[in-house]
């Protein structure tokens, strides 16, 4: 970070290479839109560049800080969407031809993503960070600026909400068994 604060573009490009994929994945899974995910990843990295001189040693690592910024940017965009439109986002069909298994897998993945979209922003963030990005609960709690126990409670509620959203789509029963 000291090198980035000194405007070392090589150090910054190494951070970009190491983190941009993860930032894009988190944003895409939260927003469901590739172009918006790219914007969020770029904005998070620009904020790192702009605030590098204020970095304090002993803070969360760069990855955790960038993830927190990306999640917050996604939450802001989701809140703006809620006020700008109440229309449902059209589902994208899988255009790749494949075997029946591949088609079933794509259908299930799309339904799971749609169910994820039904969750509140905080529940969605908890599910994405825990299950898609495979962050430990402590790291996910840090990203969301929560105490560990509060995050675990949020995650428990998020799982229940996800189970209900999947049940509405006929993918599971409310007890969690496959339909």
Automatic annotation (TrEMBL):
Q: Which InterPro entries match?
A: RNA_pol_sigma-70-like, RNA_pol_sigma-70_dom, RNA_pol_sigma70_r2, RNA_pol_sigma70_r4_t2, RNA_pol_sigma_r2, RNA_pol_sigma_r3/r4-like, WH-like_DNA-bd_sf
Q: Residue ranges of the RNA polymerase sigma factor 70 region 4 type domain?
A: 111-161
Keyword Zinc in the entry? The reply is no
Q: Which residues form the RNA polymerase sigma-70 region domain?
A: 17-82
MF terms from GO for this chain are: DNA binding; sigma factor activity
Q: Name one GO biological process term.
A: DNA-templated transcription initiation
Cite the entry's keywords alphabetically. Answer: DNA-binding, Sigma factor, Transcription, Transcription regulation
Indicate yes or no for the key word DNA-binding.
Answer: yes
Domain of life, per lineage: Bacteria
Q: Which family does it belong to?
A: Belongs to the sigma-70 factor family. ECF subfamily.
Family matches, as NCBIfam families: sigma70-ECF
> Can you say what this protein is called?
Sigma-70 family RNA polymerase sigma factor
């Amino acid at each position: 970070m000291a090198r980035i604060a000194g405007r070392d573009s090589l150090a910054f490009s190494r951070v970009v290479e190491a983190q941009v994929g993860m930032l894009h994945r988190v944003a895409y899974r939260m927003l469901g839109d590739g172009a918006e995910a790219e914007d969020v990843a770029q904005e998070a990295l620009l904020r790192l560049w702009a605030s590098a001189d204020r970095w304090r040693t002993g803070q969360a690592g760069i990855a955790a800080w960038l993830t927190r910024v990306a999640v917050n940017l996604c939450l802001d965009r989701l809140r703006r969407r809620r006020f700008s439109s109440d229309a449902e986002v059209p589902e994208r069909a899988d255009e790749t031809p494949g075997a029946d298994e591949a088609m079933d897998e794509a259908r299930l993945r799309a339904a799971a993503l749609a169910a994820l979209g039904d969750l509140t922003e905080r529940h969605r963030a908890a599910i994405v960070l825990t299950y898609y990005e495979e962050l430990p609960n402590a790291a996910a709690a840090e990203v969301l600026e929560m105490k560990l126990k509060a995050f675990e409670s949020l995650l428990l509620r998020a799982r229940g909400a996800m189970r209900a959203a999947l049940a509405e789509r006929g993918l599971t029963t409310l007890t969690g068994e496959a339909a």
